[in-house]
Write a structure and sequence with these properties.
three-stranded mixed β-sheet, 3 strands, 192 residues
């Protein structure tokens, strides 16, 4: 599979941004709300589920639905609106799979097309929640709660997939993420 990166204008966002008032720190409050709502709701339901009901199936279905809504909302809506990034898989006529990672074009004036507040909300939610699900995974594993491990693995996979996709969009699909991490850690080590 080959990776492509393209600079495109998503939904004519560059034109809309130039028309909007610069006073607003959060340009897409509904997208910002739903970016965090589904993620945080899934975590809260996971934490409080055993206190609220004794039905594991009801809890599992609720958590999986919230995680699925989060995956769809982040991948298809909030990533485009809040930071101007999107990714998807495309299958060509030969049956080969191509991953496409896109980033919004930077406006010619040099002004930022997305607000800093939205960018912080997006990346904080995108990074923090998968880390929390990984902690839940170790907790379920070491406490021998095997039935909850399946739910937690779904959380790690769905939120980890979005995190990976958006990191590839942000840093560029052609760069090797492992070598970038090694270079960063090497620089940090040399500074100390």
């Amino acid at each position: 599979s080959s990776d492509d990166i393209e600079d495109v204008s998503l939904f004519d966002a560059d034109d809309d941004v130039s028309r909007r008032s610069k006073k607003s720190k959060i340009r897409h409050p509904v997208a910002s709300f739903f970016h965090l709502f589904f993620r945080v709701s899934a975590i809260v339901v996971y934490l409080l589920c055993e206190l609220l009901t004794s039905s594991f199936i009801a809890c599992m279905v609720t958590i999986i639905l919230l995680l699925s809504c989060d995956f769809w909302a982040v991948k298809n809506v909030t990533g485009r609106l809040m930071v101007g990034l999107r990714w998807w898989n495309q299958v060509d006529d030969d049956g080969r799979s191509h991953w496409v990672f896109e980033a919004r074009k930077v406006p010619a004036q040099g002004s930022k097309s997305s607000s800093e507040a939205e960018s912080r909300i997006f990346w904080l939610g995108l990074i923090t929640c998968p880390v929390i699900w990984v902690i839940f995974a170790f907790s379920a594993l070491f406490s021998f709660k095997v039935k909850w491990l399946a739910v937690v693995v779904m959380g790690v996979v769905l939120q980890g997939a979005n995190l990976y996709g958006y990191i590839r969009c942000k840093v560029g699909s052609r760069k090797n993420l492992t070598s970038m991490a090694t270079n960063y850690l090497g620089k940090q080590f040399l500074r100390q």
